[in-house]
């Protein structure tokens, strides 16, 4: 939630207007449906507003809606939330790709020849063996880079010296680092790569009792099967490279309508093709593929 400032003010105003519109539409629809003796719960405007917000943040609060019309109204807010989350992820992904180098050295050769820094890896670990196997076949100089004069970080008592006095330390598990910090074994300030900046397979969560969960799951699977999400991420990176010759911080601002528009267009593409029947099929006797 701390990255919601990624949205521009115009996007936030539009989201608020959408909330109000969907809330009033849902509330009026429920009154009309009850008038025609369709059993629907009596919900206040505030409850409808909470239901729309829950759909937007994909928490799936159950409003006990029975008719398809009312469920689709809440589903619209959920789809809007998915679209905006994908837009946010793509912008954060672009920002991450053009971050300045944070390593204390420019090249591996700088470590080997200047002998000022070392990469400390937990001894006898899979990470260390994997690096050794790769570098023995290529350079054979891993001893000048990995664990040069590093303390054995298998011993927690050496963790403070390893982290605070050497150029870089790689601990294999976040559980181990959490344990060291909790026990206050490491006394200097440390930094870590925040996992919130990384793209994950899921961009939404839903309550297990949310009735439209299966529909949304199939929706996302369809998008991934057509490569839409990955193509959007590549597209926004490639546009900046082609037009400007590189990515600068000014090119990667907040999420605006351009991002949401591209997402919306790609959302509708596979479903519009399905509705129009624009898929290839082989006709007997034509010797090739055609369109039906």
SSE pattern, N- to C-terminal: HHHHEHHEHHHHEE
- Shape descriptor reads elongated
Number of strands: 4
Q: Round the Cα radius of gyration to an integer and report it.
A: 26 Å
Number of structural units classed as domains: 2
Strand order of the largest sheet: 1-2
Determine the fraction of residues in helical runs and give it as a percent range.
40-55%
Kindly report how far apart the N and C termini lie: 46 Å
Total helical segments: 10
Mean pLDDT: 63
Family: Belongs to the glutamate-gated ion channel (TC 1.A.10.1) family.
Organism: Acanthoscelides obtectus (Bean weevil)
GO molecular function, one term: ligand-gated monoatomic ion channel activity
GO cellular component, one term: membrane
Can you offer a commentary on this structure?
The chain has 292 residues and is mostly helical. It has two domains: 4-99 and 201-291, no CATH class; 108-197, no CATH class. 53% of the residues lie in helices and 4% in strands. It is built from ten helices and four strands. The strands form two sheets. A two-stranded parallel sheet has the order 1-2. The chain has a two-stranded antiparallel sheet with strand order 3-4. This is Ionotropic glutamate receptor C-terminal domain-containing protein. One of its GO terms (molecular function) is ligand-gated monoatomic ion channel activity. Keywords: Membrane, Transmembrane, Transmembrane helix.
């Amino acid at each position: 939630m701390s990255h919601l400032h990624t949205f521009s003010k115009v996007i936030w105003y539009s989201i608020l207007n959408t909330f109000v519109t969907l809330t009033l539409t849902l509330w009026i629809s429920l009154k009309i449906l009850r008038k025609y003796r369709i059993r629907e719960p009596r919900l206040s405007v505030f409850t409808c507003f909470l239901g729309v917000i829950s759909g937007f943040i994909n928490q799936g609060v159950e409003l006990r809606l029975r008719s398809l019309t009312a469920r689709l109204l809440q589903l619209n807010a959920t789809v809007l939330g998915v679209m905006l989350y994908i837009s946010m992820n793509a912008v954060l992904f672009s920002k991450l790709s053009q971050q300045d180098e944070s390593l204390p050295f420019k090249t591996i050769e700088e470590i080997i020849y200047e002998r000022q820094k070392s990469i400390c890896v937990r001894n006898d670990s899979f990470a260390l063996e994997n690096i050794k196997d790769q570098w023995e076949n290529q350079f054979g100089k891993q001893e000048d880079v990995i664990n040069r004069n590093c303390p054995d970080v298998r011993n927690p008592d050496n963790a403070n010296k390893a982290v605070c006095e050497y150029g870089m330390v790689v601990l294999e598990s976040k559980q181990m680092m959490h344990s060291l910090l909790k026990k206050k074994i490491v006394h200097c300030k440390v930094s870590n790569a925040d996992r919130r900046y990384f793209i994950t397979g899921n961009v939404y969560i839903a309550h297990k009792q949310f009735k439209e969960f299966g529909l949304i799951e199939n929706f996302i699977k369809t998008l991934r099967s057509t490569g839409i999400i990955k193509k959007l991420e590549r597209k926004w990176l490639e546009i900046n490279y082609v037009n400007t010759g590189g990515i600068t911080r000014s090119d990667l601002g907040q999420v605006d309508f351009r991002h949401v528009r591209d997402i919306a267009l790609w959302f509708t593409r596979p479903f519009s093709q399905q509705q129009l029947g624009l898929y290839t099929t082989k006709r007997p006797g034509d010797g090739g593929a055609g369109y039906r």
